[in-house]
C-alpha cells in the first residue's frame, strides 16, 4: 500500500533540526507539538540507576535530561551531537551505553521508522508512527492493528509477535497547509 511502511532542555539544540534529529523541521521552523510522552525526569532516572548499582556521571545525566526534554524520535547520533554541544568530551560510546541502560529499564525502545536510521523512542509501548517524507518529522499515532492479519502462507515460518506501522506522507506544513486541514 503506498504511503505505508511496515516496521517499529536546552537552549540551542542541534538535535531538534532536520530529518536525522526527528524534532523541529528545518523546512518550516517551529517546534513540533507534544506527540509522545517524555522519559521520566533525569533525577528520577538517575535515582533508579543508582538503585540498580549503576554509576550516573554528569554525561549520563545530561543525556537523560536531553531525552526527557526533547522526546522526539532522535537518532543516537543526533543525541550525541546535542550532548557534545554542551559537553565536547562525551563519546558516542557513552551515548550508546546510556541508551542501552534506558532500554533495559523499559524507558525507551529503538524504533525503525521507515528506511532511515534507528531512532530513540521515549514511548516504549507498541504504537505506530507518521513520518513526513519532506522534513523527516515523526509523530506517534495510536492505530488499532487488531484487524491486520498476516496470512499463514505469508509468514514464512515466523512466529509473528506483533506489527508496527509507519505511515508516510507530507506533514501539513510541508504540504502547504499549516492548519492541517
Secondary-structure blueprint:
Elements: E1 4-7, H1 18-21, H2 42-51, H3 58-69, E2 74-75, H4 76-86, H5 92-104, E3 109-112, E4 118-121, E5 128-132, E6 138-141, E7 164-169
Tell me the total number of β-strands: 7
Order of helices and strands: EHHHEHHEEEEE
Estimated radius of gyration: 17 Å
Query: What is the helix content?
Result: 25-40%
Supply the number of structural domains: 1
The percentage of residues in β strands lies in: 15-25%
Which terms would index this structure?
single chain; 181 residues; alpha+beta; Arc Repressor Mutant, subunit A; 4-stranded mixed beta sheet; 3-stranded antiparallel beta sheet; 16% strand; globular; disordered N terminus
Protein architecture, described:
This protein is an alpha+beta fold. The protein has a single domain (4-169), classed as Arc Repressor Mutant, subunit A (Orthogonal Bundle), CATH 1.10.10.10. 28% of the residues lie in helices and 16% in strands. The protein is built from five helices and seven strands, in the order E-H-H-H-E-H-H-E-E-E-E-E. The strands form two sheets. A four-stranded mixed beta sheet has the order 1-7-5-6, with no helix packed on it. Helix 3 (58-69) packs across helix 4. The longest helix is centred in the middle third of the chain and has 13 residues, at 92-104. 31% of the residues are buried. Mean pLDDT is 76; it is low at 1-36.
Summarize the structure.
The chain has about 180 residues and is an alpha+beta fold. Helix content is about 30%, strand content about 15%. It has a single domain (about 5-170), classed as Arc Repressor Mutant, subunit A (Orthogonal Bundle).
